[in-house]
């Protein structure tokens, strides 16, 4: 059993918007606060492979993916790119620190990744650019076809 319409679309909207805001905040922190050079140095210190490429990918995935999720455009692609970003953070940094974020654990990246995967699976919902575009593509039903 799932939530009835339009409650399900509202739930997806809330999840997309909140996830988009969190991602954009983290991406902007990498770009503006730390800078790509600082983010690269931090990634290098954590042993992340190809730290410059990884810093650029994380920044773009978080800002761009966050923005796309926020408005619901190219949602599945954006969500998968975010999930891959979080998988990298999980494997290379957080998994060895346990669960809790205050110990450097994986709970935040795990939740972000799983929510992104869930949004990729269920779609952006009606209250999104993807939803509007999909509604325009649907053929109109005539009374004869009904």
From TrEMBL:
Sequence intervals crossing the membrane: 12-29, 41-60, 67-96, 108-129
Signal peptide: none
Membrane-protein topology: Multi-pass membrane protein
Keywords: Cell membrane, Membrane, Transmembrane, Transmembrane helix
Keyword Cell membrane annotated: yes
InterPro entries (UniProt xref): DoxX, DoxX-like_oxidoreductase
Location of the protein in the cell: Cell membrane
The keyword Glycoprotein is annotated on this UniProt entry: no
Protein family (similarity comment): Belongs to the DoxX family.
Cross-referenced PANTHER family: INNER MEMBRANE PROTEIN YPHA-RELATED (PTHR33452:SF1), OXIDOREDUCTASE CATD-RELATED (PTHR33452)
Protein name: DoxX family protein
Biological classification of the source: Bacteria, Bacillati, Actinomycetota, Actinomycetes, Pseudonocardiales
């Amino acid at each position: 059993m799932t939530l009835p319409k339009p409650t399900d679309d509202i739930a997806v909207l809330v999840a997309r918007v909140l996830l988009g805001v969190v991602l954009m905040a983290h991406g902007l922190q990498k770009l503006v606060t730390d800078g790509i050079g600082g983010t690269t140095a931090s990634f290098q210190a954590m042993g992340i492979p190809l730290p410059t490429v990884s810093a650029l990918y994380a920044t773009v995935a978080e800002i761009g993916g966050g923005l796309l999720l926020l408005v619901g455009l190219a949602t599945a692609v954006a969500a998968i790119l975010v999930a891959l970003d979080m998988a990298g953070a999980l494997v290379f940094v957080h998994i060895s620190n346990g669960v809790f974020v205050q110990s450097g654990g994986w709970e935040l990246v795990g939740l972000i990744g799983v929510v992104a995967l869930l949004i990729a699976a269920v779609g952006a919902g009606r209250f999104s650019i993807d939803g509007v575009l999909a509604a325009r593509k649907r053929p109109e039903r005539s009374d004869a076809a009904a």
